[in-house]
Structure to design on (429 residues):
């Protein structure tokens, strides 16, 4: 099987996709990963063959690489990035990948949901297409999320339906128009890594050609420093704080640390692209490092304070760790709501984040055994999902036979016994 994987050049997009690519490679298949040239070293470090295509950029420094966006108002900046992600970037990738497609003629194209170029190319060349789902499926537009004034509504419509949009790109390439939600119904296979309890009951979830697959993240940061002995004190709970690889905002991290320092706990803060000294002088029970290996750290934690990116959320739940989610953008708000709904943690909206609220929320989670029990239940649910070998089996079947018939959504045998979680935390205004 010749498989072309396509990803946005960001760790949060590549990390869930890479283990499936590695499993296919281990099975003896020809596997290539298309992304930007600057992301090629990350792909190579995972033992995979990179194919450089499209604009050369990195998600972790997108504003630095597109400085014209820096001073835009928040709403306009969001729309500018949407146009970049849905038009400029896939348009450039399609042009660069055309020769690769003609030369290697992949049997299957596998993408993560934001890799628009991959599904466009699959449709153009009639190649079976699989999507690895790495977010809780949700409607693209909710009425309450749309701006109220007509001028801004018109701007939003232009971004998502105008000439420089996915609609416009499809028209340029001679493809039929489809809505954004319809786009997610078109792949021949969706490998659904959302644990059953986190799913929303939506039409999207029902008309996917989906098969469940256990979410697995690329093991990363093997060179992360060992934690000093005082950070591994078994007599006190450990709290990990991280805002991922894109949203390392020093003011948010500083607020979180100030809210947690009074707790009788060891706190490990991963600052990402920020240098640890950006947080200033820290108390003795706080350790700040640029990166940590989640697969080693999280199983030892009593609480994970996170932005709620897919990888961070899944890593925490898979380790059975309660979460305090501080969503910053995009699907992180959906993830935060689902974490609260299943009773495995709580969340604070951006305007709610303060020293007092962080301390109060962390204490409420740490002192509630039901939350810890629910987090452990989620770990068991994730562990019960089909593994990567089954994912490769499905890709092989797709490459050989085309579309795969949908099956009933996977439900672990103990799901019916899940108790109600209402009221497990303090009432919220």
């Amino acid at each position: 099987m010749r498989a072309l994987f396509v990803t946005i050049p960001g760790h949060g997009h590549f990390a869930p996709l890479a283990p499936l690519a590695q499993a296919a490679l281990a099975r003896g298949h020809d596997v290539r990963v298309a992304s930007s040239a600057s992301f090629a070293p990350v792909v190579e470090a995972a033992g995979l063959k990179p194919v450089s295509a499209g604009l050369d950029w990195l998600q972790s420094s997108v504003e630095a690489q597109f400085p014209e966006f820096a001073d835009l108002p928040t709403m306009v900046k969001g729309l500018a990035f949407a146009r970049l992600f849905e038009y400029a970037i896939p348009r450039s990738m399609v042009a660069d990948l055309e020769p690769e497609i003609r030369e290697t003629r992949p049997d299957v194209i596998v993408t993560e949901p934001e890799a628009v170029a991959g599904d466009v190319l699959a449709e153009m060349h009639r190649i079976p297409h699989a999507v690895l789902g790495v977010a809780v499926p949700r409607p693209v537009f909710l009425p309450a999320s749309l701006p109220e004034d007509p001028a801004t509504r018109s701007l939003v419509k232009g971004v998502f339906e105008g000439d420089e949009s996915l609609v416009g790109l499809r028209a340029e390439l001679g493809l039929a128009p489809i809505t954004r939600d319809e786009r997610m119904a078109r792949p021949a296979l969706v490998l659904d890594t959302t644990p059953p309890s986190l799913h929303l009951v939506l039409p999207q979830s029902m008309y996917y050609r989906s098969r469940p697959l256990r979410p697995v993240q690329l093991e990363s940061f093997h060179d992360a420093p060992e934690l000093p002995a005082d950070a591994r004190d078994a007599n006190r709970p450990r709290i990990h704080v991280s805002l991922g690889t894109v949203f390392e905002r020093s003011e948010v991290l500083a607020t979180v640390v100030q809210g947690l320092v009074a707790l009788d706990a060891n706190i490990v803060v991963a600052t990402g692209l920020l240098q640890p000294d950006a947080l200033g002088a820290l108390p003795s029970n706080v350790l700040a490092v640029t990166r940590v290996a989640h697969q080693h750290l999280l199983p030892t934690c009593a609480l994970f304070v996170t932005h709620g990116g897919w990888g961070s959320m899944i890593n925490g739940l898979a380790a059975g760790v309660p979460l305090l989610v501080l969503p910053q953008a995009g699907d992180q708000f959906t993830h935060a709501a689902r974490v609260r709904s299943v009773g495995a943690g709580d969340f604070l909206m951006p305007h709610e984040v303060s020293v007092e609220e962080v301390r109060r929320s962390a204490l409420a989670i740490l002192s509630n055994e039901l939350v810890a029990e629910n987090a452990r239940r989620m770990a068991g649910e994730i562990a019960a999902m089909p593994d990567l070998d089954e994912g490769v089996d499905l890709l092989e079947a797709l490459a050989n036979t085309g579309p795969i018939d949908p099956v009933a959504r996977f439900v672990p045998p103990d799901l019916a016994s899940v108790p109600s979680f209402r009221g497990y935390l303090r009432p919220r205004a």
